[in-house]
Queue: 2 jobs
Job 1
Amino acid sequence: MYQGELNFDGLIGPTHNYSGLSEGNIASSKNSKKTSNPKKAALQGLKKMKLLIEMGIPQGIFLPHERPSLSFLRTQGFSGSDADIVGSAAKISSLLLNQSYSASSMWAANAATFSPSVDCQDAIAHITPANLFSMQHRRIEANFTYQQLNLIFKSSHFKIHKPIKSTDLMSDEGAANHLRITNSHLKKGIQVFVYGRDTSKESLNFVARQSRAASEYIANSHKLDMKQTFFLKQNMKAINSGSFHNDIVSLATENVFIFHEEAFEDSKHKIQKIKNSLKAQEDNFFIEISKNDIPLDILVNSYLLNSQLVRNSSGDMTFIMPTEVNNYSECKEWLVWIKENTPIKDFKYVDIKQSMMNGGGPACLRFKIVVNKDEFNNINPNFLLNPDLIKRLEALINNSYRDTLEIKDLTDPELINESYTILDNLTQIFKTGSIYNFQKE
Ligand code: SUG
């Protein structure tokens, strides 16, 4: 029976496209209106999941959300048949149509925030789905994420909260702005919440997506020990350089915490406070990347820290990075130093270019949790990847996903049924019964 880290990746949906919907996300803007390849995207994502399984780390999977979201378009005033709704949205507002088609639920790091039971004062694991208030195309993910979490995690062992009510002051983007430092996964840890703004407005070039009030709300409702909980503010420079989530400029796994010098405001002082609270424990690796070694813009372009850092079977750590890291000599030099001076001894590179072009690296694609054996037993096994499920998913993707999707294709009424048929097949493979609106109507 397993205990420790496992990850849930979002299966990339059949409508993956480049609409340029995320202001402040440099890759999303740069690749706006390019042609996407949903088939390649989904296979690349699956291949990354297989790598984790090969390393002995169980891998979970989230189903794609219903796209197009006709219920969202209805709330915007469109009505009639499915084709009427899409047709009139296409005429009146291509932005609304594109939002309704976004496959952004693939970035599971934004699905929710997780606190393992060992950190929570009521000794139960807590999960809060993100309300994703800041971006309209992402805000529509929250309800289905809540439903799906309830399908996967048994309520006897996991407390699934409702997403925080969406307001400007309560803006939550999930685990992408949350870190946990501990000597080993199942020991009590320190939780660090990273937020972009204290108030509803702040003078930035880009949106600061996570609000402090939302982070505090989650820390309280997860019943965390406040002596072991910290709140760090993102440095404005980091947000303005394109770090729209903190997981582009820092990461933590067990006793390794890596962060860029310019990731946080008042960094030296705040990090020292975290270090002090760890005093009694030995062997912590707090690794600061200086701007002289890797300037912020190179860190953001390479996605070096949007990587998965996992404990491997030999007891060392493996760093799973996007292949793009190889394009930057600064990153390569830093990796040489890392290998010599830290427990990170093994490097693996994954090609997830289709997701990267929308600003989603390896860490964005996964929702990391830590469970004990009893909790692992209370996860719905239908959502855990195994060789048979991989084969069935590969067959479905190869047979029914498109290999090109242009933005103008989103106006094609045929795409509605095509997407829903694939989702319907997925519910059969995952044995969920009817979970999408189109299956209930
Ligand atoms: O929210 N991109 C996502 C990328 C999320 C990355 N997640 C983490 N850093 N954890 C976002 O900006 C682009 C959609 C488009 O342009 O079509 C998008 O939503």
Job 2
Amino acid sequence: MLSEFDLIAQYFTRPVRETARVALGVGDDCALVSPAPGMQLAISSDMLVEGRHFFPDAEPRSLGHKCLAVNLSDLAAMGARPVAFTLALALPEARAEWLAPFSEGMLALADLHNCELVGGDTTKGPLNICITIFGEVPPGQALRRDAALRGDDIWISGSLGDARLALAGYRDELTLPQKTLADAAPRMHAPTPRVALGLALRGIACAAIDISDGLIGDLGHILARSRVGATLFADELPAGAALASQDRELRRRFALAGGDDYELCFTASAERRDEVLAAAQLSGTPVTRVGRIDDAAGLRLVDAAGAPLDLQLASFDHFASP
Ligand code: ADP
Ligand code: MG
């Protein structure tokens, strides 16, 4: 059995890369991080709990990827550039067969985004993974939830609903063909944080949020914080490749309120459509215009003909009953 310190040394300690803004990494009482002069730090934490956020038998490599991906997604939604992160880990046992792929999955994604693991905490206990991530953004350029303006377009990156479709398959809520489940599953296990798009949207988008609990609920946070309302074009929502072959009712439901998408929902002035599309192209991320910000409070859904839709959809809430 590995000791706590062997485990940290073996799986979570690497030489700090020269390109990183890190003066001191894992191994001291604190890490030392040097943000670029004049930048604001963007800071976010996300905790993933076994049985709550992932199945007990979750494959460790994709779990490592996903834990960091959901944190990177928060930086993306702020227009922040990743710098560093810490990892607080409770583990029932120190098994190399689990730790090796877990750290590889996590650190491969970290390398992709030049985001350095600089410290953390390790303890024995029920599996629980908490990451705190640090990014940098020029003052005044963060994509905040309270910045949507009346008349803005509402945009979505990528596609929605496949993670929820995979979950429905695993939970036997739906009987899915093997191929449909295989197509949808990567969206649940290995989400792609839209960091490059978030950076490209600095100075173009007004408000942004990442979609973790479902579009309706997450867009609702922008509306509440910006004190505006919105109309969503329910049939313009980009369904994931697997969800696209399902019936219209399911497509709407999972695209609007599925959750676990980690796409960006953002608003931008209608005058800046070309700039939004250029940012999407620059970052290699598809975007779709799916609605507009209105004066009137609340969220309205309309179909392809512009007729109002009355869909009873709730977004995910850990403390909602049942
Ligand atoms: P302290 O008791 O001073 O908080 P620890 O003994 O908990 O320090 O950790 C030793 C070093 O290893 C610290 O630099 C800490 O940040 C780092 N560390 C602990 N756990 C992890 C982890 N899971 N991933 C990365 N670094 C870790
Ligand atoms: Mg400690």
